[in-house]
Amino acid sequence: MSTPSPNTDSTSQNLRWYEGISRYQWLVLLIASLGWVFDIFEGQIFVASMRDAMPALLGVTADNPSVSRWNDLGFGSFLLGGAFGGVLFGMLSDRIGRSKTMILTILFYSMFTCLTAFAQSAWQMVLLRFFVAMGVGGEWAVASAMVAEVMPQRSRAVMSSIFHASSVFGTLLAAAAGAFIVTLGESAWRWGFAIGALPALLTLWIRWSLHEPEQWVKARQRASEDATQKTGRLSELFHGQNLRNTLVGVSLASIGLVTFWGAHIYGKNALLRHAQATAIVEEGLDPATADKEQKQMAFAAHKTAIKQSEMLSMVLNTIGGGLGLVLFGAISNRLGRKGAFALYHIVAFIMVVWLFKFLIPQGASATVLAFVLPVFGFFTLGMHAGYAVYFPELYPTRLRGTGAGFCFNMGRLATAIAFFGFGATTITDENKALMLAPLYLVGVGILFFAKETRGTELME
């Protein structure tokens, strides 16, 4: 099965982004996206179940301060593992090939997510999150490079956005598991992790269906003939023209991922807090005078409704985020990569402050929150598609997996550092989000140093 060269596009500039795409190119997008769907599921199943899993492992109630601290350590461990795995597997993909490395990453995160179902303590959960994340971080680096390399220039931004937007299905699967599996009993959260073994079946399809991109094959040929063209050398990211691109990429990813884990995911608290307040009132309590024990009894009596409200917030947030991801490519084709990033960062700052400073604390209605959450998600999550669009455009083929993986996953490292810090505090979720909101404006400043890549071919 042959793949048309993505760089022989000069005769088809009048085609729409979806016209002239071969069956094999669609197949690459589908398989890469499925890998990313399950990738995100493995990460988000922890978010969906952490209010049940960690208290069970610690033997305490969900409001115990130790639960929040251990959950933050779990986030930190996951992000640290993603940083390590993203760089390691990104380099490996430049050296041994995209499809081979994708198989390794999916097997890695599938096996360790399944093992998490058997965790017996909080520290085991935290450790296993590290190994799951190694595969998760690596899969993105490999798949984003592969999608970029097989698509024509006119289609690349939109296709890369669709690839990254497929993540919402992983989040929705995790939300569904969190909303319904929890009703099966106290240890039901373990089933959510157990089904994490299923993505391993995808590797059979990859093995049978995909071959290495033509650009990568040519890069390996050049490397065999010229020692200066070696593939997957991490040190080259910090030399010459690559240095500025690497610094900009790492900075953008760090801001996007820190705010994702510190602000975006807490959009799920919007309807959760509303449901908790409703439960207190329905139990005949005065929210102003009820003590902690009374509130916990009210929450326990309405556990299913509260959990489903939390998951509904997660779904609305994710639907909006999905639209933001899908449309990033088209917006960046109109405004340029830098213009699209600027738009998303500025509006994200406004939405985070509005939701966590005003709407939630002031008891906004469920209807208002339901309308605001998709807009909030559109901008706080949507910018992430820009990493799949932009980072592969910054590096030549022989460094594409290494560079894209390094930029995206060093963002995970920055986030891990932030959450290990948060793990030592008792700060509320809403206050975390407000503290991190100014980072969006820092991102706008970084764009002044960024290279514009709209309309350019991938570097050989």
UniProtKB/TrEMBL annotation:
A single Pfam family, by name?
MFS_1
SUPFAM superfamilies with a match to the protein in the record: MFS general substrate transporter (SSF103473)
Q: How does it sit in the membrane?
A: Multi-pass membrane protein
Q: Where in the cell is it found?
A: Membrane
Membrane spanning residue stretches: 26-47, 73-92, 104-123, 129-150, 162-182, 188-210, 247-266, 311-330, 342-360, 366-391, 403-427, 433-450
Provide the leader sequence positions: none
Task: Alphabetically list the UniProt keywords.
Answer: Membrane, Transmembrane, Transmembrane helix
- Any one Gene Ontology cellular component term annotated for this protein: plasma membrane
Q: Which residues form the Major facilitator superfamily (MFS) profile domain?
A: 28-455
| GO molecular function terms attached to this record | carboxylic acid transmembrane transporter activity
Q: What is this protein called?
A: Putative sialic acid transporter
Q: Which organism is it from?
A: Thalassoglobus neptunius
Q: Which gene encodes it?
A: nanT
